[in-house]
Specification:
The protein has 2 domains: 61-160 and 305-334, Response regulator (Rossmann fold); 167-299 and 339-364, Rossmann fold. The protein is 39% helix and 16% strand. It has helices at residues 4-11, 15-23, 30-43, 49-56, 82-96, 113-122, 167-180, 196-211, 229-244, 258-270, 288-291, 305-320; strands spanning 61-66, 100-105, 127-137, 149-155, 162-165, 186-190, 221-223, 252-255, 280-282, 300-301, 331-333, 337-338, 356-357, 363-364. Helix 8 (196-211) links the parallel strand 6 and strand 7. The longest helix has 16 residues, at 196-211. The protein is elongated. The relative contact order is 0.12.
């Protein structure tokens, strides 16, 4: 393998001159530069990146910790890939910035995170990004102050810079659109109540109702998903049964995610109801493999994973290049409502209009 000394000998210059050409840190005459570059090409010389890192004190490397690779879901399960989409958004920005992204996967084990952080620091990364698979609180090991850190889809108790989905706004905007379409009895089938996303989305749901002057009926908010595969189907079936048995049943089901909405379609059809003629359904995620494949196509809210990744990467790049721009912490990223034909627009109430029969025989006007 050719060395810098071989290049210097072939070009008839000193190794120091070759170094100047490689690093661009001192003036070199045009003819000399051409001779050195010709020798490099002829010998197939590859500069040592490690040596250049030591001289420049800049590695050009960014460390990214995620579970996107190992936690890719079973292909038979209709789930999205939030981690991977965030990573793609990060990579697009880093590539355009001339920085190299080094990705380490947790293997689904949080205990590996401290080791991965140490490994990245040993490689002298200029910054770190940690990506979580869902909106949650995390607890990372202590990281030196000279290595900036951005959290994506998560936050901690120490005020570390974080980019999060604007869950409250997403559910607010969807609920407001449903109200504008004439719906007043809007059921909300939530993800587990203890999750950050659910707490924030319930806030957005309540705010939209309040703005429209619609009284909150807590009977319309019910958990539709639990983290127990064997029991989750029964929980969702029971939730729908309870909602349809109310004296004033809902005219639309808002679901915690698009996968739940897909299951709601099946349950409602089993009960003899049509979407959206008899009852409307909306989701959350805009996971297009589900939303666009369902019939009718699903109204849902975009979870802006790629945009979150891009925002996190842009924030880190601005810090590294000492060009910080004003950022709120956490930075909230929202996505639009994707309005499709799973939601019908209701006409003005008419005492002679029957909307649909409920399983217990009562008719809803």
């Amino acid at each position: 393998m050719a060395t810098i000394y071989d290049v210097a000998k072939a070009a008839g210059v000193s190794p120091k001159t070759v170094s100047r050409v490689l690093n661009g840190d001192a003036p070199v005459g045009k003819k000399t530069r051409e001779s050195v570059n010709a020798a490099i090409a002829a010998l197939g010389f590859v500069p040592s990146n490690a040596a250049r890192m030591m001289r420049s004190s800049k590695s050009g490397l960014i460390g990214l910790i995620t579970g996107a690779i190992s936690m890719t879901p079973d292909p038979n399960e209709p789930k999205g890939l939030p981690d991977l989409l965030i990573v793609q958004g990060i990579q697009n920005v880093m590539s355009a910035s001339g920085l190299t992204l080094m990705i380490a996967d947790t293997g689904g084990r949080a205990a590996r995170v401290p080791h991965l952080v140490r490994t990245f620091l040993e490689h002298r990364v200029e910054g770190l990004i940690y990506v979580a698979e869902f909106h949650q609180r995390v607890d990372l090991p202590e990281i030196p102050a000279d290595c900036p850190v951005i959290l994506a889809n998560c936050y901690d108790d120490y005020g570390t810079s974080a980019v999060l989905p604007d869950d409250a706004r997403g559910q607010h905007d969807l609920t407001a659109r449903l109200i504008a379409a004439g719906h007043r009895r809007i059921a909300y089938l939530t993800l587990p109540r203890e999750t950050d996303a659910t707490k924030l989305r319930v806030q957005g749901y309540r705010r939209a109702l309040s703005e429209a002057g619609i009284a909150l009926d807590t009977a319309l908010i019910i958990t539709g998903f639990i983290n127990d595969r064997d029991r989750s189907a029964a929980v969702l079936w029971d939730a729908i049964d309870r909602l349809l048995s109310l004296p004033e049943p809902p005219t639309v089901f808002c679901c915690g995610n698009d996968e739940m909405a897909m299951r709601v379609y099946g349950i409602l059809r089993t009960r003899g109801l049509r979407m959206p003629e008899d009852i409307s359904v909306a989701g959350y995620d805009n996971y297009r493999a589900i939303a666009e494949a369902l019939y009718p196509p699903l109204t849902t809210v975009e979870l802006p994973y790629a945009a979150m990744g891009a925002r996190a990467a842009e924030w880190l790049v601005s810090i590294i290049k000492n060009e910080p721009t004003p950022q709120s912490n956490p930075t909230l990223v929202s996505g639009p409502v994707s309005w499709r034909s799973s939601v019908t627009t209701l006409s003005a109430p008419d005492a002679n209009t029957v909307r649909f029969p409920t399983p217990n025989g009562r008719k809803i006007q």
